Structure formats: structure tokens, C-alpha cells
């Protein structure tokens, strides 16, 4: 699954919707994908809106992880990604803080669980959002920028995280010798 995959962007949309507790109709109006094929109409300055964009981190290298399960090595590769969120509107600052906090809520229907289903894993402890004022015409509007680091499971080499061929691990044949020294 590649970061520009439509399914991946729908997963991010669902996770943001869960983090902000928006209904389906509200989410369609307030959550907009940045750099989409057909750009959305610009909302009024009084409308709360979140533009989101998921991109791979070109400066980071592929992360590799191995673990032992049932006496077999399992290797996983992760692509570093960034989720860029730009909030506008009267509630932009509170929405940015809610996303920063609530995207890490776990559970099957929680935002983190939704991301995990697609192989996206948010990295804990993100930086706080940046608050700035953007000039539009003759006025200024408040804006909050939030960047979250994520890891995308690279299953292109294996087909899926579970189905790739594991490597057997040698088992311990004799117990190790343990010497306990007591000092008085």
C-alpha cells in the first residue's frame, strides 16, 4: 500500500472524523484533503475546516523491525510518513489540540485503531500545534498547523504483515549457568 493510495486517505479521513467526533455530514464539510484531484471550494472564514495531507518523509530511511513469535523471526519494514494538518476557523486551535491528543486514543473504533487497520502507526509525543495569523485580502484569519509523524507498514514485499515467510529461530538446547555472588 502506497501513501498516495485512496484507501489510505479514506482511513486518515475516518480517523480524523473519530478524533474530532464529527458526524458523517459534518466531516464531509469540515475535513478536506489538501492537494486533491478536484479541490474543494474555499469555505467561509467563520467555518471550521481541517485540510489534511499524508506524505512520505523523503529524508528518512526505511525503518526495519524484527520480532520472535513461536520460535520464528518476523521482519517488518516501515515507511516514515508525515500527516500534515492545517486548521482554519474560530475553533482551529482547539481542533488542533484535540487531534494531537485524540488521534492516540486506542480501541477498535478509536482513531488509533482505525489507523492501525490500514498499517499506519502514529509516533507518540508530537510537537504542539503552531498558531499563526494568515493574511486573506485585507483581513487576517487564525490558522493552526499540526504535523504528526507516522509509520506506514510496507507490505509490498510480503503481501501482508502476517503472510510473509518467517525465518526459524534456533532453540536453546542447554540452560545457561547462573552464578550468584553475595557480598556482605
Description:
With 184 residues, the chain is an alpha+beta fold. The protein has a domain of 127 residues: Gyrase A, domain 2, CATH 3.30.1360. The chain is built from four helices and eight strands, in the order ααββββααββββ. Strands 1, 2, 3, 4, 5, 6, 7 and 8 form an eight-stranded mixed β-sheet that branches. A hairpin with a 2-residue loop joins β6 and β7. α1 packs across α3 and α1 runs antiparallel to α4. The longest helix has 15 residues. The protein is elongated, with a radius of gyration of 22 Å. It starts with 5 loop residues before the first helix and ends in a 16-residue tail after the last strand. About 3% of the residues have low confidence.
Q: What's the rounded overall pLDDT mean?
A: 83
Assign an overall shape: elongated
Instruction: State the total count of DSSP E strands.
Output: 8
Question: What is the CATH domain class of the domain at 6-58 and 78-151?
Answer: Alpha Beta
Structural class: alpha+beta
Straight-line distance between termini: 61 Å
Q: Would you give the CATH topology of the domain at 6-58 and 78-151?
A: Gyrase A, domain 2
What does the largest sheet look like? Answer: 8 strands, mixed
- Give the radius of gyration: 22 Å
* Strand/helix succession: HHEEEEHHEEEE
CATH architecture of the domain at 6-58 and 78-151: 2-Layer Sandwich
Strand content: 25-35%
Number of helices: 4
In helices, the fraction of residues equals: 10-25%
Low-confidence segments: 159-164
Amino acid at each position: 500500500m502506497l501513501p498516495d493510495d485512496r484507501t489510505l486517505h479514506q482511513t486518515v479521513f475516518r480517523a480524523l472524523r473519530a478524533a474530532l467526533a464529527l458526524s458523517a455530514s459534518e466531516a464531509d464539510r469540515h475535513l478536506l484533503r489538501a492537494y486533491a484531484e478536484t479541490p474543494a471550494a474555499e469555505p467561509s472564514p467563520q467555518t471550521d475546516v481541517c485540510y489534511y495531507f499524508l506524505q512520505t518523509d523523503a529524508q528518512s530511511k526505511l525503518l526495519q523491525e524484527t520480532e520472535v513469535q513461536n520460535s520464528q523471526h518476523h521482519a517488518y519494514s516501515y515507511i516514515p510518513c508525515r500527516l500534515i494538518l492545517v486548521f482554519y476557523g474560530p475553533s482551529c486551535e482547539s481542533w488542533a489540540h484535540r487531534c494531537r491528543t485524540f488521534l492516540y486514543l486506542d480501541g477498535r473504533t478509536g482513531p488509533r485503531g482505525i489507523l492501525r487497520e490500514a498499517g499506519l502507526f502514529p509516533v507518540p509525543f508530537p510537537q504542539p500545534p503552531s498558531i499563526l495569523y494568515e493574511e486573506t485580502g485585507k483581513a487576517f484569519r487564525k490558522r493552526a498547523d499540526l504535523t504528526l509523524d507516522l509509520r506506514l507498514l510496507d507490505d509490498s514485499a510480503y503481501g501482508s504483515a502476517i503472510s510473509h515467510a518467517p525465518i526459524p529461530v534456533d532453540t536453546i538446547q542447554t540452560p545457561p549457568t547462573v552464578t550468584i555472588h553475595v557480598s556482605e
